[in-house]
Amino acid sequence: MTDHSIHKVLLLGSGALKIGQAGEFDYSGSQALKALKEEGIQTVLVNPNIATVQTSEGVADKIYFLPVQADFVERIIDKERPDGILLSFGGQTALNCGVQLFQRGVLEKYGVQVLGTPVQAIIDTEDRELFVKRLDEIQIKTIESVACCSTQEVRQAAAKLGFPVILRAAYALGGLGSGFCDNPEELEKQAEEAFSFSSQVLVEKSLKGWKEIEYEVVCDRYGNCITVCNMENLDPLGIHTGESIVVAPSQTLSNQEYHKLRALAIKIIRHLGIVGECNVQYALDPFSDDYRVIEVNARLSRSSALASKATGYPLAFVAAKLGLGYGLFELKNAVTKTTSAFFEPALDYIVCKIPRWDLTKFPGVERMLGSSMKSVGEVMAIGRNFEEVIQKALRMTCQGMHGFVENHELAIEDIPTALHAPTDIRIFVISKAMQMGYTIQQIHQLTSIDCWFLEKLKHIVEIDSRLKELRQTACLASDEANQEALEFIEDPMFIKTLHEAKIYGFSDFQIARALGLEDNMNMQEAALLVRRWRKELGIVPTVSQIDTLAAEYPAQTNYLYLSYQ
Fold first, then answer.
1. Cβ–Cβ contacts within 10 Å for residue 419, how many?
2. 554: preceding bond cis by omega (within 30 degrees)
3. Cβ distance 489 to 536 under 8 Å?
4. Is 295 a domain residue?
5. Domain count within the chain
6. The dihedral of CA 141, 143, 147, 152: what is its sign?
7. How far apart are CA 543 and CA 317, in angstroms?
8. Are 336 and 221 in a shared domain?
9. If we measure between CA atoms, which residue out of 83, 97, 77 comes closest to residue 36?
């Protein structure tokens, strides 16, 4: 039952755009404001970024274009006198601001109720020392670590744990100040950077090479929990999840591993007292079922936005309602309008997220990826298999790539080094290595990427190779005056290969390039020729598939039918 004493709510918004905090928090805040408006609650938004949906007319009742900082927010509270405040919809910036307001006594002074997750639970997850202690209470494994408040303590902790170690700054956005250290020199440099972002730094034993798994969990005030989505990073531990290629649901976990981590996530969220949504990140040993909890985000995160869009479960909307006191069993899924919000989504498709970097715009920038974020955005692709979604997503990053294969040639001097060092182009280095004859085992040893993913990527290269074998006859067939054209497109081998290529995410452009058609015409004409061949052969999505999509997404019906013509 909702709390009827709440008539006006202050929402801390997404703030200015920065690395690690971008449009996903605009999405979260907009959903929360929509949920509050549905309840007839007056909303006050603090957000200095005018280029957002949540600051559009009619989304919030009143907007303050001021920084999301404690001093400004205190003055707004004094003027507006809200009954409640929502902290978890504006990312790390809003969370830090809310904790400061709590510690200064501002919320108590003005009688402002924190809706959803209590501030103490937020502090328990953000303060690294408290976080470890709280999870120790329920025998949940965390990475062996020491909380430090000075460089001297960092040195002592590293000596105790042994290199390599990772430094993490508390209350930091997008992994700011964090990094791996293999020796005392790197430690000194990283410690100086970490303390510039936070007064507390955690020194942890490195688990580089372990799998990184995430669970999005929702809990109401009655302790009812569901896991909305689980995700798996293609890249192993050592790269920030915002920098990683991510798939949902996980693909390489056994049934035992999946349910074990799911049960632990529910146990954690209940113990910490989180109300609403949270993100639990695990490190999982690839050679056993041993695990460590990396962190718990007691707020909507980048991963939450991905999970919400991947599953169709409106996480932010539901979390806002739970903050008002509803139970999961009292809410309907806002998308389906029929199922209860207490049902876990079941996916019969796969989703892939790939980050977008703009590192080429900054000469001299370090291209190595690590535990601190550098990406400025991300894309998401949906499909029936991993090969399809990885190719779709790579095309959408708008960096001149057409998929995993048939891109412009990359000039790489040292393939083993380029595979071992994670950079923004490593996925294309893997493609080049496979085409040069590197085995899956060799690439696995250099990258620590699970062999399942590498097998799927290898499958793309194999299809590409089969298309290239048809080059000579394809070029003859491209001359429509040639009698062999008809014979070629009716060849069972060509039909089978073309059909397989489309199932596994090849665009008409990629197929045309693999067939060598650009030798006879420009690439636009070549892609249109492949498209015509496909339609003549009936290699198009079935009507039933389009009808199913149209029923699920009625607003996009016309687009769906046009795009498949």
1. 23
2. no
3. yes
4. yes
5. 5
6. positive
7. 33
8. yes
9. 83
Report phi then psi at 181, rounded to 5.
-130, 125
Cα radius of gyration (the chain): 26
- Asked whether 272 and 223 are in contact (CB, 8 A), the reply is no
pTM of the model: 0.85
Contact (CB, 8 A) for 83 and 115: no
Residue 139 lies in a domain: no
Do 228 and 305 belong to one domain? Answer: yes
The verdict on 326 and 390 lying in the same domain is: no
Tokens coding 53 = 């949906």
Half-sphere exposure of 276 (CA within 13 A, CB side): 28
Q: Are residues 385 and 485 in the same domain?
A: no
Residue type at 345?
Answer: P
| Residue 86 domain-assigned (yes or no) | yes
Q: Please check whether residues 29 and 89 belong to one and the same domain.
A: yes
Please give the structure tokens belonging to residue 312.
Answer: 């169709």
Q: State pLDDT tens for residues 50-105.
A: 878 888 888 899 999 999 999 999 999 999 999 999 998 888 888 889 999 999 99
The enclosing domain of 153 has a CATH number of: 3.30.1490.20
Question: Is 553 inside a domain boundary?
Answer: no
Final residue before a domain boundary, out of 205, 231, 256 = 205
Please list the alpha-helical segments (H only) found in 69-109. 70-80, 91-104, 106-109
Find tokens 């493609």 and name the residue.
431
Domain with 324, as residue range(s), is: 211-346
CB 53 within 8 A of CB 26: yes
In total, the chain counts a number of residues equal to: 565
DSSP category for residue 216: E
Percent of the chain residues topping a pLDDT of 70: 87
Which secondary-structure segment (H or E) carries 284?
strand 276-284
- Tell me the per-residue pLDDT of 247-283, one tens digit each, with 9 for 90 and over: 999 999 999 999 999 999 999 999 999 999 999 999 9
Which tokens in the block code for residue 407?
Answer: 């891109």
Q: What is the CATH number of the domain that holds 419?
A: 1.10.1030
**Distance from C-alpha of 150 to C-alpha of 171, rounded to nearest angstrom:** 16
Burial letters 105-138, b for 16+ CB under 10 A, else e? ebbeebebebbbbbbebbbbbbbbebbbebbeee
Q: How far apart are CA 173 and CA 18, in angstroms?
A: 9
Asked if 277 and 216 touch (Cβ cutoff 8 Å), the reply is yes
* Tokens (6 digits) for 101: 């307001």
480 and 460 in a single domain? The answer is: no
The CATH number for 300's domain is 3.30.470.20
**Contacts for 106 with CB less than 8 Å, ≥ 6 apart:** 70, 73, 74, 77, 112
Q: Is the Cβ–Cβ distance between 553 and 382 less than 8 Å?
A: no
- Could you tell me if 484 and 449 lie in one domain? no
What amino acid occupies position 138?
A: I
